[in-house]
Amino acid sequence: MPAYQGELDGLCGQYAVTNALDLCGLGRHRQALFEAACASAKPERWPLVLWQGTEFSDLKRMVRNCLSSPANGLGIRARYPFSRGAPANNAAYWDAFDQAFSDGGAICAIVGLRKPNPHWVVVIPDGGRVAFIDSTPDQPVYRKNRASLYAGYRRPKPNQWLLDRRELIVLSIA
User: Fold this and answer.
1) Beta bridge partners of 145
2) At 1, is the pLDDT very low, low, confident or very high (cuts 50, 70, 90)?
3) Which end of the chain is more exposed for a tag (fewer CB within 10 A), N or C?
4) Non-local CB neighbours of 151 within 8 Å, separated by 6+ positions
5) Is residue 113 within 8 Å of 6, Cβ to Cβ?
6) Is 16 a residue whose pLDDT tops 90?
7) Assigned domain for 3 exists
8) pLDDT, average across residues 25-37
9) Cα–Cα dist 140/26, whole Å
């Protein structure tokens, strides 16, 4: 089987930022956004970021760099609702997640998965489900019930996906 994006590299963060901004209406600038995201890593992080992946601080830098580019003519802005503290538990996370999308301006978010494997992915609330927009070619869009997702540090059930409840970037149109 041929290699696919993410199998040999850790660029899922750059793809997540590009895909999120594409959903926000900047799709015609996709290549420039991807290049800006890649160029955002601190020089001392290269080339480690290629095979170790990106951290939340890298992602925030990528988003900031992409949103400051001339391509952002739509006034897209990023919010980091849990930067001052993560919600206390899984239920509080999903309440705050829904609240972040309640104003009507939020388009999508980027979350950090820890299990089944470390990965950055774009999400959109879909009632009791979450729609995922991913960089894997075999299934770029899929939905999961919230009960199969757990925001925390240890998942109570081994088949649940684990989200880091500190890592949420919400993208909105101003």
Assistant:
1) 129
2) low
3) N
4) 87, 90, 93, 94, 97, 162, 163, 164, 165
5) no
6) yes
7) no
8) 91
9) 18
